[in-house]
Design a protein that fits this description.
globular, 29% strand, 7 strands, two-stranded antiparallel ribbon, single chain, alpha+beta
Amino acid sequence: MPGYTIRLFGDPVLKQCAREIEEIDGGLARLVGAMYETMYEASGVGLAAPQVGVQRRVFTYDVGEGPEVLVNPEIVESSGEWTFEEGCLSIPGLSFEIVRPRYVTLRGVDLAGNEQKFEADDYLARVFQHELDHLDGVLMLDRLEPEVRRQALRAIRERDVLTVPPAARNGKPRL
């Protein structure tokens, strides 16, 4: 199955909550395979289904240890605080300092239907939270202070960053 086109800021699908996945089947496996392809093609480290126009609660990620997927993920615990620069495949060319919990406990299921539970910190915790935000219709811009958000929106308009092809995004991995 060929990869997908990544939906960009302004697409209403990015502001909607994704629906739970009730059945893990071949269709979901094909979706996940195409999401991996799309994520790698865009030099991303994570990709949520809404970013490719599919309103289902699943995301893929690879932080250097191979491709992974979580179906119906949820954070069950979080603590600490950490400010770190984030980028997003749906808002190419821009990155912002985002405050998030430093530690999270996350659970979901894999493609075999097995329950998974992760205790993550730092970068992996951030990837999980960023992708979960997409499943809830939240973009990183929504996490900015009002004045920083206004500046970000102005930068998007002025730079027309939403037309930047993946290869021109300065090689930095994006969530």
